[in-house]
């Protein structure tokens, strides 16, 4: 899936916005954009970065049973997301959208415990 991270990441974020359309307001680069979500280069870049990191985390977890991320990276992500207004309840939406995206992409390999 990592080789298709751009496409899959965009699919994920479109699914998030479908579930919670107000989530678009959390992205400063979407607020005044005249470009459709599907073609927005900043959304595409953000989505690809997120999906690559998610894939790398899964690989780390499968290989070693844990995910290693530098503390400074986690702190920066936490501060950025907090300042943007991402609340804990939003993470459940992201989790659901991510699992649904993966299920669509690899339905034959899918199981909720994979």
TrEMBL record:
Keywords: Heme, Iron, Metal-binding, Oxidoreductase. It catalyses: Fe(III)-heme b-[protein] + nitric oxide + H2O = Fe(II)-heme b-[protein] + nitrite + 2 H(+). It comes from the Eukaryota. The keyword Iron applies. Coiled coil: none annotated. SUPFAM superfamilies: Globin-like (SSF46458). It holds the Pfam family Globin. Signal peptide: none annotated. Its cofactor is heme b. Residues 1-114 form the Globin domain. Transmembrane segments: none annotated. Belongs to the plant globin family. This is Globin domain-containing protein. It comes from Vitis vinifera.
